[in-house]
Structure formats: structure tokens, C-alpha cells
Amino acid sequence: MTSYIDHLECTVCGKSYPHNELIGVSPCCEKVLFVRYDLAKLGREVDRDSLVCRPDTMWRYAELLPVDDPADIVSLGEGGTPLIKTVNLAKKLGMTNLYVKDEGLNPTGTFKARGISAAVSKALELGVKGFTMPSAGNAAGAAAAYGARAGLETRVFMPQDAPAANKKETLVAGAELNLVVGLINDAGREAVAVAKEFGLFDLSTLKEPYRAEGKKSMGLEMVQQLGWKMPDAVIYPTGGGTGIIGMYKGFQELLELGWIEGKQPKFISVQADGCQPIVKAFNDGANSSLMWENATTKADGLRVPHPFADYLILDAIRATGGTALAVSDQEMIDAMYEMATAEGIFPAPEGAATLVGLKHLLHQKFLDRDESVVLFNTGSGYKYLDLIKGS
Ligand SMILES: Cc1ncc(COP(=O)(O)O)c(C=O)c1O
């Protein structure tokens, strides 16, 4: 089980960089760098079906992840989350193949564990002494946990009104918590400055190549759980976009390997009414987004007013015939109850947003009731207890 990592590649001009040096954004265009693998060799040497017998974590896909030496892997058991076929929700909506990929069961309660595990492991392998992490909240909690496990200095930056659970999980794991006046983009500026001053690696969303690789594993796992078949649509709550970008990239790799066949699922991006830069760009036919002023939503993970990798999110949506739509905070909160009542899954508001999106798209006939659809519940509702009424 060793990585087939080959080089890093600029997503704008295609220029290659060595993979054994720590690079953040592409030096040529200052845009996102992707990890590229030697897929031809991997395809010759690795049998897809042999992966099934391995331990049920995202490191099952180690050949398609960036860490060279398995001894460098910093793991808390991330991945291996269930793909739950809904019974009551499907019935209510007249569907036959409606699934929830429940990422709330990851260490630290969100899908962030996957990206952070990959990035911290690779950064450790390349010799960092510590890192900075701007976050809407959940990524910071994961960074603190994995930073502690790795024994690396960890400094996180989050908006001062981020959820209490995120602040507390950061503190309990011994990371330095910096509360910032403003949003994640303001936190990002501070994180970059501190990283520069203290010689730390900045793990901002998609400003380093490895977090998206961890997120990619959600997609690899989902298709494996479906018997190496892709669903018709994936509905994903979109903030910085690592999930969509990572999964789209992962499916391209699986297709190139010949491990799956057919069309990629339609990628459907759900955002909040109060912060919808990707929806606006998609509807305007633009290739990049504009800063969403005065961004506000109770779904903190969706409060990303100007995603750095907007062009890649829009690419994935358009290339797969997907769409983007926004939903209200009240709809999300109602859907938290609905998912919990119908299926026993207590979602984060971000995850609940996907159910609202699904209903709108069925109503608009963008999706058919006989299509197979996977909703991504990216986090646990336990991190957002203040949104739930009662004592
Ligand atoms: C629970 C939750 N869902 C979704 C998102 C958005 O994730 P992505 O960067 O993949 O768009 C976040 C990001 O903070 C989050 O915490």
C-alpha cells in the first residue's frame, strides 16, 4: 500500500512541480495545485477488488492518496462512513434510490477529518514543524485534533461567532485559538501572515494540494459502497468547495483507471440564501464568483463569501450537467428535524440543506424520482445543538 503520487500540477496552466517539496498554491498562476498520480502504473499493479479487504478507513485508498510512507499517516480512523439507503424519506418523496452519506460519523464529527488527515500527514512527511488553519469552524476542530495527534504546532483562526463546539474542541486539543472579527476570508489573511512570520505551513482551503485528496475519498468510498457504480446525482453543501472538487477529481481518476464506467453524477451545489456566490456565478454563466457581501447563515460551513477555487467548483457542476441553488436557514433547520425524524440521522444544517435542495429540484423536475441520488450530510447535528429547540 504505497502512494502512486507522481507530481503536482497547476489547475490553470498545467505546469508540473515536484511532489516532494512543500508547495501551497501554484507559483506560476497562484491558483490551485492538484496532486497527479501515475495512474497507468497503478492500473497495472493494483486490483480494485483487493481494496475491499482492507481496514475501513479512507487510507484503504492509499495508492490514490498523497502520502508516500505509511508510517507518516496521521489517522484517527477517518472515513468508512455509512451510505444509508433511506426508507421513510424515499417513500415520502416517491423515490426508490435515495441515500445519505453520513459524514457526521467521522472523528471530530465532520467530513473535515478526511482532508485534514491527508494534509497533516503529508505536511508531516515533508517536514513541517506546524501549521496555521483558517476555518469557518469545523476544519479548525479537526486541525486541532490531528495536530495534537501529530505533535505539530497548530494555530487556528476562526470568526469570533463560530459555533461554541468548534471553539471548545480546538481548545481541548491544545491548539492556539485565534478569534477574528469578520469571516473566513479575514481569518485566512491572518493565518497566512502568521504562517509567514513563524515558518508554519498554511492549510487554507485549496491553497495547498492535499486536503482535496482526503475529501476525494468520500467519492471513492461512495462508489465502492454502490458496487463501483456512480449515482445519477450528488447533492453537496458547498462552502469552499473541497468536497465537490475532490470527488469530481476522484471520479476522473477512477474512470481513467477503468475501475468505474459511465457518466459522472450530476454535481449539485447547495448554498445558503445569505451566502450564495457559487449559485450567482452559475446562474450568471460566469467562470468565477464575486465576493458575497454581508454573508450570513446559521450553517457556518456555508459562510464562505468568496471561495478561492470557485472556477473548479463551477467546472465540476457544468461538466456534469449539475446545478446550484440556495435554500433558507429556516428550511435547513426544518430539514434537520425531518431527516432525524424520518431516518434517525441527526444532520448538521449544511447536510440538511441537501434535503431541501433535493425537494426543490424534484419539484422543478430537474431531478426525476427514479434517479439515484446521494445527499451528503457533511457533519453531525451534535455540533449545532443551539439550533434545536427545547432543553
Ligand atoms: C459541515 C460542513 N459542511 C459543508 C462545508 C463546506 O465544505 P466544502 O469546503 O467542501 O465546500 C463545511 C465547511 O466548513 C462544513 O463545516
Q: How would you summarize the topology of this molecule?
A:
Layout: E1 5-10, E2 16-17, E3 33-37, H1 39-45, E4 83-85, H2 88-93, E5 98-102, H3 112-125, E6 130-134, H4 138-150, E7 153-159, H5 164-172, E8 176-180, H6 184-198, E9 201-202, H7 211-225, E10 233-237, H8 242-257, E11 266-272, H9 277-284, H10 310-319, E12 323-327, H11 329-343, H12 349-363, E13 373-377
Helix pairs in contact: 3-4, 3-7, 4-5, 7-8, 8-10, 11-12
Bound molecules: pyridoxal-5'-phosphate.
Q: What this model shows, in words?
A:
With 391 residues, the protein is α/β, with parallel strands linked by helices. It has a domain at 83-110 and 212-387: Rossmann fold (3-Layer(aba) Sandwich). 37% of the residues lie in helices and 16% in strands. The chain has twelve helices and 13 strands. The strands form three sheets. The chain has a six-stranded mixed beta sheet, with helices on both faces. Helix 4 (138-150) links the parallel strand 6 (130-134) and strand 7 (153-159). Helix 3 (112-125) runs parallel beside helix 4 (138-150) and helix 7 (211-225) crosses helix 8. Pyridoxal-5'-phosphate binds at residues 110, 136, 138-139, 205, 237-243, 301, 348, 350, 378-379.
